[in-house]
Amino acid sequence: MNDEKSYKMRARTRRTWRDIGAQIGISKNMARDGAMRWASRQSLPPPPRVLTLGEMAYEDRAAGATWDEIRYTLRLSNESVARNRAYSHAKSHGLPWPPEGAT
């Protein structure tokens, strides 16, 4: 039961294994291993990875969101923090800067 719950929670929320384990009442390792085991038994892909704030900021900007909208959505302190997170993500992953599609 926890295996399926861990997998579905990760797929739906992209939360960390620590958060998922805490919510279910198991360790982060049990949450991760259980989700992987359940995916394998069900012939599903592995659980998705966690999205970083930088990745979310970059993708939101590429989709046309303003820096203020991104700051608000991601609960960041100001627009420059949102820009810096997105910039760092772009540079560390070899992505174009500014994001394509950004205005």
Walk me through what this model shows.
The protein is mostly helical. 24% of the residues are buried. It is elongated. It contains six helices and no strands. The protein is 63% helix and 0% strand. Helix 1 packs across helix 2 and helix 2 packs across helix 3.
Question: Which key features would you list for this structure?
Answer:
6 helices; mainly alpha
Helical proportion? 55-70%
Radius of gyration: 16 Å
Low-confidence parts lasting 5 or more residues at pLDDT below 50? none
The secondary-structure class comes to mainly alpha
What is the number of E strands? 0
Count of individual helical segments: 6
Give a quick account of the main beta sheet: strands, pairing sense, barrel closure. Answer: none
Distance between the termini: 46 Å
Element pattern in H and E = HHHHHH
Shape: elongated
Instruction: Report the β-strand fraction as a percent range.
Output: under 5%
* Rounded average pLDDT: 94
